[in-house]
């Protein structure tokens, strides 16, 4: 398999195996007019396998979404085929409209309002702002 190197763009690395497509879908990377490569089940020294996403354009990325789905991921910024920055992610204090509240009685599922979850501990537990149900 041969995937070209990135001239200007991002390499999202150390994504847990199986989470790459979720990030791809939530970030709507299919809507971009540039090359996007998703590598699943790549060999990893830290873990047995990982996913990698390569985006061959410097577009706006929501790092909070990536951190919520894969907090151990890293985002390498590539310019002129050289890594100029490596962003280590941290869990966002709040997420909005990334996931829906699993509680069918929650107001966010019955009214036209945002689905907001707050980080409640340092283990990555998010709870609904309205009913305090834990995000799945």
Automatic annotation (TrEMBL):
Any keyword DNA repair? no
Domain Aspartate carbamoyltransferase regulatory subunit C-terminal: start-end pairs: 94-133
Q: Which UniProt keywords apply?
A: Metal-binding, Pyrimidine biosynthesis, Transferase, Zinc
Q: Name one Pfam family in it.
A: PyrI_C
Cellular component terms (Gene Ontology): aspartate carbamoyltransferase complex
- The keyword Oxidoreductase appears for this protein: no
| Sample GO molecular function, one term | transferase activity
The cross-references to Gene3D superfamilies, in alphabetical order and at most eight, read: Aspartate carbamoyltransferase regulatory subunit, C-terminal domain (2.30.30.20), Aspartate carbamoyltransferase regulatory subunit, N-terminal domain (3.30.70.140)
Mention one GO biological process in which this protein takes part, according to its record: pyrimidine nucleotide biosynthetic process
- Can you give the residue ranges of the Aspartate carbamoyltransferase regulatory subunit N-terminal domain? 1-87
| InterPro entries cross-referenced by the UniProt entry | Asp_carbamoyltransf_reg_N (IPR020545), Asp_carbamoylTrfase_reg (IPR002801), Asp_carbamoyltrfase_reg_C (IPR020542), Asp_carbatrfase_reg_C_sf (IPR036792), Asp_carbatrfase_reg_N_sf (IPR036793)
The protein's name: Aspartate carbamoyltransferase regulatory subunit
Give the organism, scientific name: Eubacterium coprostanoligenes
């Amino acid at each position: 398999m041969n995937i070209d190197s990135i001239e200007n763009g991002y390499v999202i690395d150390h994504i847990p195996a199986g989470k790459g497509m979720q990030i791809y879908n939530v970030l709507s990377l299919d809507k971009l007019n540039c090359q996007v490569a998703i590598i699943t089940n790549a060999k990893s020294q830290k873990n047995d396998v990982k996913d990698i996403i390569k985006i061959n354009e410097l577009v706006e990325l929501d790092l909070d979404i990536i951190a919520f789905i894969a907090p151990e991921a890293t985002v390498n910024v590539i310019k002129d085929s050289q890594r100029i920055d490596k962003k280590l992610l941290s869990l966002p204090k709040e997420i909005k409209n990334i996931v829906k509240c699993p509680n069918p009685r929650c107001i966010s599922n019955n009214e036209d309002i945002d689905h907001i979850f707050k980080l409640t501990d340092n283990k990555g537990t998010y709870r609904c702002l309205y009913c305090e149900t834990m995000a799945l």
